[in-house]
Amino acid sequence: MATPHPAAPDWFLLPPAEQQLASGWVGYRHVTGVMHWHHAASDEDRLSVALVIPTPSDDDSGIAHALEHMVLRGSTRYPEPEIFLALRAELTLLEFNATTQKESTRFHLSGYDPASVLRGIGFMSDCVFSPLLNSDDFDEEIIRHTVRADGLGLDGTLYRELTEYQRNERFNESVDMAVNSEPRAPLYGGMTDTLQALDIVKLRRYHNTYYRPENAVLISSGSWPMIGLWRQVSKALSHVGKALSTPDDDDKVRHERPVSSPAALPELRIETLHFSPYWACVLHPALRALRCQKKLAEMGATLLPLNSDFQPKPTLRFRVTQHTDISALSRWLEHVQQELSARRIAWHSQYFALEQGRLMANRWGDGLQRLFHDFAISPFASPYLKAMPNTETLPHESERLLSEPQGEWLSPCQPLRRLSILCRCQARDQATRAAIERWLALCQQRTLRWAWMKGSPILCDIRQWDCANAVIIGYTVDLPVSDVEALRQFWHHTLRMNEIEAIPGTWQRTEDGMVFLGKGSTPVYRTGSIMASHKDEDSAMHVTLSFPHTVEAGDIAVLGQAVMATSMIQKRRLGGRCYAVSVGIDLMHYELTFDTVADGDPSVSFIALLNAFEVLSKPLDDPMFEKACHGGLGLVSAKYNKSQGRFHRALLGMVGQTSAIDVSKTTPDSLVNLVTRVLAALKQPTLH
C-alpha cells in the first residue's frame, strides 16, 4: 500500500511491489497521478531534473513544438511572458530549457545551487500544467502575418526558428529522407509552410489532451531537498482541473517538398532494408569505406545517414534508381555482414553508442545525459524513453524490430569522461609546435591501438587553441568512465617524455592526463582599452567585446547577464522578430559575445543592444544588481561546467585562468564604469 510522506501528504511512496530499489530508483506518486522517479543510487553532485510529457506527433504541423514555446510564455503564477528569459539571466544554472523530441517534450534543468533549481522547477511546473496560452502570445511566439516594405509576410519566433533550420543543408537532407521513406516519418518540429494550419484553439486542445498530470513523469538525480521539490510541483498541480472532452482532429498537415522535373532527374526513391538497429550501427561505418562506396555506385545505390532527429532509430536506407536490383543489394549486404570480424562488429556498435552519448552531453550537459541514460535503461521506463539494448539481434528478429515503434531511441551509453594531453608553446616557435604535433600524433596512434586491443572504442581528436602569444595543442579522448583509470595508467606507463626531451619545458602528470608547458610560453595579456567588433549577416547580429585583463572576470560575467535582463533585449526576443538573443563568455580570450539567430533585422537588434548599455550606464538597484551577480555565476558555470567541466577547467589553467570567478568585488559603480568604457568602444567598433 502506498504511504503518504509526513511532510508532503499529497505525495505517496510507492508500495514495495512497485518500487525499483534494486536498480537504485525510488518511486513516488502525486495524488493527481504525476509519477516521480528519483535516482537515489546516483553519485551525481549536480541537481538534475526533467519533467517529461508524452507528446506524440503524427503529422508535420509542429503542434508539440509550438506548444513547448507557448507554455513558457506565462502561467497562472507567472503571468508575465518575460519571466522565462529573466530567470535564464538570473539563476545560477548549468541548463534551463525545454526540448521537443519525437514522442515527448522535456522541460529540464540542472545546477549546483539548490535555491536556483527549486525556483526553476517551480516555474517550469506551473507553465506545464497551468499555462496562459493567450492568442496575442501565439501571434508573437508562433506565427503571424505582417506588413513589410515588399508586401505581406510572415513572422513569429517559431516561424523564424524554422526558417533558419530550413537554410541548413543537412536539415533539408533529413527532411527529404523523412518524407520519402516508408513509412513516412512526421516532421514533428513543424515546417514554415505547415505552421499556418495551427491556431491557439488547437494548441489548447492538444494541451488539454496530453499535458495531464496522469501522463507526466518527473525524473531527478542528485542530493535534492525533496520536500522543497515536491512543494514546488504541488503548487503547480493545485490549479489543474479535470480533462475536458475534445473533438478529434482528423486533418493531418503534411509538408510539401518541391518536386523536381522527371525529365531533368532520373526517378529516385528511398529504400529501407530490413536490418535490426544493432546491425545498422555495425554495417553503416563499414559501408562508408571507399571499396564499398564504389560497389554501391555500381549498383545504383547511395548510402543515406544512419539516423536523424525525425528518424532517430538506426536504419539502413539507400537512395536508389528504378534500375537498382534491391535483391542483389540485400545479398551483397549480407555478404559484407558475414565478412566482418567479431571485434569490428563490437567496435562499431559501441562506437555509435559513444557518439550518441557525447551528442546528448553536448546538448543537455553531463548531468542530464546521465539522468536520461540511467532512466532509459531502467525496467520501468516508458516505451518512448526506453533505450534498446546495444546487443546483437538474431537475424530472424530484424524485420520484427524494424517494424516495431522504438520511441526516441536513447542509445545506452554510460557517462563519458575526457582525458587530455595538453601542450603549450610560443605561437611563433614553429619548430617546437611541429615537434609537439608529431609527438601527439604518435600518442594518438598508440592510444587507438590500445583501445582496439582492449575492444573499447574511444572518441579522440587533436585540437588547437590560440591565446595571446601562446598556442595550446591538445589531444583529447572521450571514453566511458569505467575505462578512465585504464587509459590513465596506459599513458603514464607507455608515453615517454624523453621522446621529445629536446623541447625545453616542464611536464606534469595529472588526474586528467598530461600537461606540458614550453619554456617562455606564458601568455602575455594585453592592457589598455576595451575593443569591440560588430558584424551583421542576413539573419544574425554578432557583437564581440574584448576586455583587457585588468578587468575583473566577475565584472565581465555580471555585465553580460545584466544586459540580458534589460527589457530592450527581452522585447527583441519576445516580439517575434528573432528566434534567439544570446550572450557568451570566453575567459581564455577575455571576450563577451552577443548574438542573434534568425533575426529579421540585425541592425535593430544592435540598436537594442546599445540602448541596453545606455540603461545600464546608471547604477542598478540592489535587487537587480543581486540578480545580475547570480546570473553572472550561472553564465560562467554553464560555459565551463555543463559538459566535461574538468577538461575545460584544465584548459583554462593552461593560460593561467580559472572558472572560479569572484563577483564579490563587483559593485554597482564598478559596473557603471565598465558600461561607460563599453559604450565608448561600441561607438567606434571594428566592422566586418
Give a quick set of tags describing it:
alpha+beta; 8-stranded mixed beta sheet; 5-stranded mixed beta sheet; 23 strands; Insulinase family protein; Pept_M16_N; Metalloenz_LuxS/M16
Total number of strands: 23
User: Counting H and I runs of at least 4 residues, what is the number of helices?
Assistant: 22
What structural class results from the helix and strand content?
Answer: alpha+beta
> How confident overall, as mean pLDDT?
91
Residues in β-strands, percent:
15-25%
Tell me about the largest β-sheet.
Answer: 8 strands, mixed
Strand order of the largest sheet: 1-2-3-4-10-5-7-6
Rounded radius of gyration (Å): 27 Å
- The stretches of 5 or more residues where confidence is low (pLDDT under 50) are 260-264, 393-402
Helix fraction by DSSP (H/I, runs of at least 4)? 25-40%
What best-fitting shape do the alpha-carbon axes yield? globular
